[in-house]
Automatic annotation (TrEMBL), chains A, B:
Keyword Cell wall biogenesis/degradation tagged: yes
Keywords linked to the UniProt accession: Cell shape, Cell wall biogenesis/degradation, Isomerase, Peptidoglycan synthesis
Organism: Levilactobacillus hammesii DSM 16381
GO biological process, alphabetically ordered: cell wall organization; peptidoglycan biosynthetic process; regulation of cell shape
Residues annotated as binding substrate: 10-11, 42-43, 75-76, 186-187
A Pfam family assignment: Asp_Glu_race
Catalytic activity: L-glutamate = D-glutamate
Job of this protein: Provides the (R)-glutamate required for cell wall biosynthesis.
HAMAP family noted in UniProt: Glu_racemase (MF_00258)
The name this protein goes by in its record: Glutamate racemase
PROSITE patterns linked to this entry: ASP_GLU_RACEMASE_1, ASP_GLU_RACEMASE_2
Protein family according to the UniProt entry: Belongs to the aspartate/glutamate racemases family.
This protein's pathway: Cell wall biogenesis; peptidoglycan biosynthesis
Active site: 74, 185
Gene from which this protein is expressed: murI
């Protein structure tokens, strides 16, 4: 099992921001990533449906790659499905919300924290609950920015259009005097420069991917699951249910070790694979 | 269980360096610390005896404080007893060697890593094995510095005598061209300024306590064991089997929140408590 890969899943390419941190902290671990772009976005879907999708993907990654750990590199799927997946799977399952909340609590000085995320994540209220559980002195300002996801999936990261969408989206947070902003959707770190520009230099942006990779590292060590081969595996395996060329292009821009050559996985196979069992 | 304290144990005051990191990262967690100074040093004892001591202390902390997690804040006891304690206890048990090894591997650039520790830890060879498992390209230079422990326990951290002991102890490492030195005994970070002075500014000192506190944080989040009260508990509970005044003085120097008022715990009670069960 130590030689098995770590599986990561997302509704699309956003999870690559978490993958990048995992590859940085754990260069000797194999990784396998699945972006469910054909069914993107997850944000507006209800929790039961997102849980079904997550279960299908987890099943595929276990059968295809015998993953030793699953990282739900998607805030919407974490909010909807983490607890269920932790119950159903025998491997460790890591989500992004608890680590992201921890980072935010450790970052803020004035105890005013913004959270931007998809509609589904904001609706779940889990960031606010997690942050207040760790320190009720905080005030949390939550804001759904669903349309940021489309910008990222379209690889539109720095156009004038992107700038205006980001600016309009963040406006409700500008007068809240927050000093910390959680990028509570794994797509959003790809828009970091624009988000920072709009929020100004006094707001620290928290990328939950960093703390999530950190948690994965701790759990591998705790269960003695780290790969002892010592061979670097900078290049992971990639699957997308969507368009391969678009996936590869975005992954190549974002990840350091390239080129990425994703496999196409039809959604029908994903569903069938799970039902066959 | 979420409101229960985290237990930390050491042969003496060295574990306070880990406690300090835990209190920094997890200010809302209650802590209870036991320093077994009456039976110090652990370093020269055999593994079976150290395991017995660790079991006695774990039993005391569970009965006295219903701890929700045990951090073995002692490298010697981690090397001797971590695996056994993880099997015997139903709460998470965290040691310092795996996190410390991870830190070292992530720190080194030239893949030449020094490890200084007690005789027992060096003899266990666990740092070398852990570091090589994570990356076999590393070379590990291990060195027992047992007499550093006495300096710290005597609160002799910056005298000329301390300087000469540290210098003599580290001399075998000076021509090894290491760029990273693991302080593989929790007492040693109290000697950090002297160790840094002797090793020179190009050697990065790794304190496993930082990564251990990080692992504890991840595990609390993973099992949903973090204290949700949000109340700060900067001041822990302290027990020593040794001299209370000496313990308090050293703890007051090292920890930020003071004064520390340790309870004295006779070794006889520690043994009896365990045997009574």
């Amino acid at each position: 099992m130590q030689n098995s890969p770590i599986g990561l899943m997302d509704s699309g390419v956003g999870g690559l921001t978490v993958l990048k941190e995992v590859q940085r902290l754990l260069p000797t671990e194999k990784t396998v990533f699945l972006g469910d772009q054909a069914r993107l976005p997850y944000g507006p879907r209800d929790a039961a449906e997102v849980t079904t999708f997550t279960r299908q993907i987890a099943g595929f990654l276990q059968r295809q790659a015998n993953i030793k750990m699953l990282i739900i590199a998607c805030n919407t799927a974490t909010a909807a499905a983490l607890a269920t997946m932790q119950q159903e799977l025998t491997i460790p399952v890591v989500g992004v919300i608890a680590p992201g909340s921890r980072s935010a609590v450790q970052t803020t000085r004035n105890h005013r924290i913004g959270v931007i995320a998809t509609t589904g994540t904001i609706k779940s209220d889990q960031y606010r609950q997690n942050i207040l559980a760790k320190d009720p002195n905080n005030q949390v300002f939550s804001l759904a920015c669903q349309d940021f996801v489309e910008l990222v999936e379209a690889n539109d990261l720095d156009s004038e259009h992107a700038r205006s969408v980001v600016k309009a989206g963040l406006t409700p947070l500008l007068d809240r005097n927050i000093d910390t902003l959680v990028m509570g959707c794994t797509h959003f770190p790809l828009l970091r420069p624009l988000i920072q520009e709009v929020m100004g230099p006094d707001v620290t942006l928290v990328d939950p991917g960093t703390a999530t990779a950190d948690m994965a590292t701790s759990l591998l060590d705790y269960w003695n699951l780290a790969n002892p081969s010592g061979v670097r595996h900078p290049q992971g395996d990639y699957y997308t249910t969507g368009d391969v060329d678009r996936f590869n292009k975005l992954a190549d821009n974002w990840l350091e070790e390239t080129p990425v050559r994703a496999h196409h996985l039809p959604v029908a196979d994903l569903i069938q694979t799970t039902e066959v069992e």
